[in-house]
Amino acid sequence: MLAAASRLFAAQGINATSMEDVAAQAPVSKRTLYAHFPTKDDLVLAQLRALVESGDTLHAVLTREDIPARERLLAMFDIPAPATGPVRGCPFLDAAAEFPDPDSAAHAYARAQKLLMLRLVTDLVTELGVAEPELLAEQLVTLADGAAIRAMTLNDAGYGRHARAAAATLIDHAERTPAE
């Protein structure tokens, strides 16, 4: 059910996907779907959590220790091309946009994931010895989110290359803390 929801949300958006669509795609009865997910909000939240647990997010790249910190930061701008359908960008940005109430569970979860991304980026920037890691981290996540939105809007998975070039410049020219 979650896999079907994930495919449909990516292909058509959350609000354009009905519970009936998910049940048909799963395939399960609507009764079974509603037994597991009493509301669509429950389904969306479960789908976002499953995405995080799958390791198929930027967080997985940002936490890989076998890749240098600079390369992990730049990997935020490698937007995966979908096998089929349009480029969707970031599922957490999508969820926040489709659930605009900041108190809704989906929006709150998306915000938490974005704050986690900021923390991971701040840790990597700190590892690089940047003098003001919080400032550079905010700039990098803003670029990454903007690239994801533009890639989706333009349906161009390669769009991240523009933000990646800007991020490399920011990283390479950031003031470093003096070596002790």
Automatic annotation (TrEMBL):
One Pfam family, short name: TetR_N
Transcription is among the record's keywords: no
Gene3D superfamilies linked: Tetracycline Repressor, domain 2 (1.10.357.10)
Superkingdom of the organism of origin: Bacteria
Stretches assigned to coiled coil: none
Membrane-crossing segments per the record: none
SUPFAM superfamilies according to UniProt: Homeodomain-like, Tetracyclin repressor-like, C-terminal domain
Keywords: DNA-binding
DNA bind region: 18-37
Domain HTH tetR-type, chain residue ranges per copy: 1-55
Protein name as catalogued: TetR family transcriptional regulator
Organism encoding this protein: Amycolatopsis tucumanensis
Lineage: Bacteria, Bacillati, Actinomycetota, Actinomycetes, Pseudonocardiales
